[in-house]
């Protein structure tokens, strides 16, 4: 990876993926503060939604970083997985995984709750000692909903569009079909058929499944604690918690690492480091990523008072 200051622009990336760091993007108005920033998504108009653990848990900006609105006190403390999906009715919706309330929630872009899904009725998997803690959610082309229990018992749960339970798979382990901390989940539409990508974080790999939960393959190169996914064209953008954004091509081969800092996660007290440590062109603890229609990249980091970065695509 190369980086340089050109005509007072801070540039990171490589020859094919070059970005200007938009320093100071996304100013918060007085009276609004981030908690831990976890998820970030962009809508069809390139408005950006930041999901964080503060009382204003959803904060909306325009593409230039101007504050538009905020909402979502019900997610305070539990904000985690965040997914935007255009359903078959042609409308975009937000999907949330709330770790505190053990809920998956579907809302409009304005925050009106449309659906809530609690834990599955699986006493063989869950009880008072074996908790259910959903960390991410995604939606297949047919509307089916998939939830990753990344902080509980490490299962993937499959529901229909109305929230009716269909199946589960996974469980702790490193064999095909098993996972350790399935932190993120998304749908890959780049191939001949849709696939489920699971960020099998503590195994430092991606595990790929059919929509029915059958193991297909691993992606286990060039990753370091992958958190989640954002598919953009033929590429997939992955926040590696160990201090970088990883970009893979259609065949899941490495294109580049963005903002890599191999010292950050080794610092005492990480991820909450002294403010003097942070640099605008380096990441410390990336947790969420999205890409707008122009190829600009937005990164949310797992830091107690939040950190959001915009990278403006140059080429």
Automatic annotation (TrEMBL):
Protein's UniProt keywords contain Amino-acid biosynthesis: no
| Protein name, entry field | NHL repeat-containing protein
* PROSITE patterns per the UniProt record, alphabetical: NHL
Q: Which UniProt keywords apply?
A: Glycoprotein, Repeat, Signal
The record's listing under Gene3D superfamilies reads: TolB, C-terminal domain
Q: Name one Pfam family in it.
A: NHL
Return the NHL repeat spans: 170-212, 283-307
């Amino acid at each position: 990876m190369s980086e340089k200051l050109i005509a007072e622009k801070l540039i990171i990336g490589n020859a094919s993926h070059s970005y200007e760091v938009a320093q100071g993007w996304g100013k918060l108005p007085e009276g609004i503060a981030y908690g831990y920033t976890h998820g970030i998504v962009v809508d069809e108009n390139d408005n950006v939604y930041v999901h964080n653990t503060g009382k204003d848990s959803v904060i909306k900006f325009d593409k230039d970083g101007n504050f538009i609105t905020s909402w979502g006190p019900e997610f305070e403390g539990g904000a985690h997985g965040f997914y935007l999906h255009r359903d078959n009715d042609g409308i975009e919706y937000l999907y949330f995984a709330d770790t505190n309330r053990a809920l998956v929630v579907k809302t409009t872009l304005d925050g009106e709750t449309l659906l809530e899904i609690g834990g599955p009725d699986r006493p063989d998997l869950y009880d008072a000692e074996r908790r259910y803690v959903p960390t991410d959610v995604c939606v297949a082309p047919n509307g089916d909903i998939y939830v990753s229990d990344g902080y509980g018992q490490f299962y993937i749960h499959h529901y229909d569009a109305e929230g009716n339970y269909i199946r589960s798979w996974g469980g702790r382990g490193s064999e095909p079909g098993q996972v350790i901390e399935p932190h993120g989940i998304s749908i890959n539409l780049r191939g001949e058929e849709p696939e489920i990508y699971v960020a099998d974080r503590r195994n430092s790999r991606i595990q790929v499944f059919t929509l029915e939960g059958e193991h297909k393959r691993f992606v286990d190169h060039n990753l370091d604690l992958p958190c989640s996914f954002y598919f953009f064209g033929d590429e997939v953008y992955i926040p590696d918690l160990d201090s970088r954004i990883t970009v893979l091509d259609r065949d899941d081969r490495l294109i580049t690492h963005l903002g890599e800092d191999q010292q950050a996660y080794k610092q005492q007290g990480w991820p909450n480091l002294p403010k003097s440590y942070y640099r605008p062109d380096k990441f410390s603890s990336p947790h969420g990523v999205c890409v707008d229609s122009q190829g600009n990249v937005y990164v949310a980091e797992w830091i107690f008072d939040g950190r959001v970065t915009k990278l403006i695509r140059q080429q």
